[in-house]
Amino acid sequence: MKESYGMGLRRNRTSPALRNLLSSESLHPKKLVQPLFVAESLADREAMSSLPGVFRDTKQTVLSQVESDLKAGTEHFLLFLVPGHKSDDSIPVQFYEDAIGGIKKKFPEVFLWIDTCLCSLTSHGHCGLLDKKGRIDNDSSVKRLSEIALCYANSGADGISPSDMMDGRVASHRRILDSNGFEHVPVMSYSTKFKSNFYGPFREAAESTPGHGDRSSYQIDVRNREDSLLSSLRDAQEGADLLMVKPGMTAIDLIRPIREATDLPVGAYQVSGEYASLALLAENGFCKFEDALRETWQVFSRAGASYLITYAARRGKEILS
Ligand code: PBG
């Protein structure tokens, strides 16, 4: 970290959108982050049957989505980039530059976080690279991830959001950002991320289902409270600016302890399976979707979440009014 930034507290103050996201006010549409998917292989946008109101976009069609979301009052986006060609040894720089640059050139006012992981890129769908024996190779994974983080920043990303769960990624991203003139770019870490059954619809959207095995050698075991806390504390020490629990609902008990232990903003990710389950209840006439969403958001707020990533962020104003 550069001397002048010290603990880096100024990073979270550098834009109006970040100040809105992290204010200590209660739930507000500006504290919601909208996920976006841009998939290189698509000829046109497609709706996701499991996630009503969510689309997989091309780098063109995403622009009209962002335009209407901005009009609806959404400022923060979390972009998932899904390359058409899967590769374990190269970075699709052009696709990343075009997708990120396209959005930021047209809408410089949005705050664009980029999910930083390898699962949509690798041939096997794991979040890290594999060694010859087929085990996750932590250090080469972190090196590749930091190169990707730098590519995102070079393309105009406002924030980097590591979701891979490798050891040392936050410190490594901070180092590569700082040494390339991106001291102001914050890291929003998926700091307490569990291995979960609630990511199913997402993996379809991100083309990231592991071809073999599962993610239990890198994502946290839901039975382990100590690891859940340690994981966020460690990311705080490595220089993360924002922390996160995920899935939100099954990690609800950890939000306040993490916040008290680190004094950093802690958000919750209402993941695809959580959103889809409310949609299914509503489709079957068992609840009203918007009311059920509002209830969950109020509970995240009660539990101490300072921001919320949700697939219905773009409907925030309407749902909270
Ligand atoms: C990538 C990543 C995942 C999600 C966000 N980033 C999937 C996973 O870990 O398998 C899940 C988001 C959701 O379900 O909405 N590693």
Automatic annotation (TrEMBL):
Keywords of this entry: Heme biosynthesis, Lyase, Metal-binding, Porphyrin biosynthesis, Zinc
GO MF annotation list: porphobilinogen synthase activity; zinc ion binding
Organism: Leptospira fluminis
Pathway the protein takes part in: Porphyrin-containing compound metabolism; protoporphyrin-IX biosynthesis; coproporphyrinogen-III from 5-aminolevulinate: step 1/4
EC number: 4.2.1.24
Residues that coordinate or bind Zn(2+): 117, 119, 127
Signal peptide limits: none
InterPro entries on file: ALAD (IPR001731), Aldolase_TIM (IPR013785)
Record Gene3D superfamilies: Aldolase class I
Binding positions (5-aminolevulinate 1): 203, 215
Catalytic activity as recorded in UniProt: 2 5-aminolevulinate = porphobilinogen + 2 H2O + H(+)
GO cellular component, one term: cytosol
Active site: 193 (schiff-base intermediate with substrate), 246 (schiff-base intermediate with substrate)
Protein residues bound to 5-aminolevulinate 2: 272, 311
BP-aspect Gene Ontology terms: protoporphyrinogen IX biosynthetic process
Superkingdom of origin organism: Bacteria
Gene: hemB
Matches recorded under PANTHER family: DELTA-AMINOLEVULINIC ACID DEHYDRATASE
Name the record gives this protein: Delta-aminolevulinic acid dehydratase
Family named by the database record: Belongs to the ALAD family.
